[in-house]
Write a structure and sequence with these properties.
DNA-binding, mainly alpha, homodimer
Chain lengths: 188, 188
DNA sequence: GTCTATAAGGAGATAGAC
DNA sequence: GTCTATCTCCTTATAGAC
C-alpha cells in the first residue's frame, strides 16, 4: 500500500464500510487501523475521536448519496420517470451493499437521540430526502394530475420507501422496494 | 426489594427497558444487575448468556405487542375503524416510550443479520404484523370497496407505518404516524 | 437467592521513538 | 507517516463462600 498519500481518505472509507456492515458500536479502532493499513497515530491525528469519525462518516454518506442520485437521474426528462428512477436508485444501492439498509437509520437505531450532532445529521438527511422527493412530485404536478394532495403524496411515497428500505435490511432483499415501485406506478 | 420472588421477571424487564432505551450493545451486564437489584449469579442462572437474554427480550416484546393490540382493538366492530385504531395503538406506544421506535427494527439495525435466531425473530414479527394488517383489510373488503388491490393496499399501509415509526424515532414525535392515519382516511 | 474475586480480553486514547 | 508500549476502564463470564 502507498504509505503517505490518501491516508485520511482510506481511514474514512474503511471506517464507513465497517460502521455500515457491522455497526458503529461493534467496530473497534483497532479493526479500523488494521483493515485500513494505517497506524493508530495517523488515525488520531486526522480524527481526534471515534465520535468525530462518526460525524465525518455521516457527512460523507450524505454527499455520496445525493451526488450519486443526481448522476443517476441525470438523463431522465419525464418527471414521473424521475420518481420511478429514484426508487431504482435505492434498489441498486441496496443490492450493491448486501441489503444492509440506510446508513442513517442504522446509526439512529444504534445511538438513539443522545448525541445532538448525530441527531441533527440524521434528521437533516431525512429532511433533504423528503424535500428532494417533493420537488420531483411538484414537477409531476406541473405536467399531469396527482392522485392525491401533493403533501400527502410526498409523505406517502417517502414513508413507503423508508419502510421498504428497512424491510430490505430485515429480509435481505429488495422485494418491498419493487412493490413500492409497482404501487406508485398503479397510482398514476 | 423482595429478594427471592420475581427475580427472573425483574431481570427481563430491566434488560428490556435498557436494550430499548440505550441499545443492546451499549447495555452492560453490570448495569442490568445493578438496576434490577439482583446478583450476577442470579442472572447467569436464569439466562446463560447475554444473547440468550436478547432472545427472551424479543420473544417477550412479541407477546406484549400482540396481546396489547388485541386488547386495544377489543371493542371495535367496524373493520375500517380497526385499521385506524391499529395506527392509534402505534402512536400510543411511541408516545409512552419517548418515541424510540420499534424494538425489532432497532435490534436488526444493531446486529444486522449475523445471528440467525435474531434474524428469524425480527422477520417473523414483521411477517405477523403484516398478516394481522391483511386480515383487517380483508374484513374491510367484505363490507365495502378497497381503493386498490388488496395485496398492494396491505403492503402500502404496512410500509407507511414502518416508515412512520422509524421517523418517530428520528424526529422524536408521532407526526408521520398521524399523517399516515390521515392519508388512509382520505383513501377510503 | 446474596456477595466478592477473578479470569481473559477488548475498548478508546495517549506518548514517545524512528 | 510508521511502530510499540502503556494507561484506564469496561466487557462477558465463571467460581466459590455465605
Amino acid at each position: 500500500m502507498k504509505s503517505n498519500n490518501g491516508v485520511r481518505e482510506r481511514i474514512l472509507e474503511t471506517a464507513s464500510r465497517l460502521f455500515y456492515q457491522q455497526g458503529f458500536n461493534s467496530t473497534g479502532i483497532n479493526q479500523i487501523i488494521a483493515e485500513a493499513g494505517i497506524a493508530i497515530g495517523s488515525l488520531y491525528k486526522h480524527y481526534p475521536s471515534k465520535n468525530d469519525l462518526l460525524y465525518h462518516y455521516l457527512q460523507h454518506q450524505e454527499a455520496v448519496y445525493f451526488s450519486g442520485l443526481d448522476e443517476y437521474l441525470g438523463e431522465v426528462r419525464k418527471p414521473i420517470q424521475k420518481l420511478i428512477k429514484l426508487i431504482d436508485y435505492r434498489i441498486e444501492i441496496q443490492e450493491q451493499s448486501h441489503c444492509f439498509g440506510c446508513h442513517f437509520i442504522k446509526i439512529n437505531a444504534e445511538t438513539g437521540r443522545h448525541d445532538e450532532k448525530v441527531t441533527q445529521l440524521v434528521a437533516g438527511h431525512k429532511k433533504k430526502q423528503r424535500d428532494y422527493l417533493e420537488r420531483i412530485i411538484s414537477e409531476i404536478e406541473s405536467v399531469q394530475g396527482l392522485p392525491m394532495k401533493k403533501q400527502n403524496l410526498t409523505d406517502a411515497v417517502f414513508l413507503m420507501i423508508e419502510g421498504a428500505v428497512v424491510s430490505a435490511s430485515i429480509n435481505g432483499n429488495t422485494d418491498d422496494l419493487r412493490t413500492t415501485k409497482k404501487i406508485i406506478n398503479q397510482m398514476f
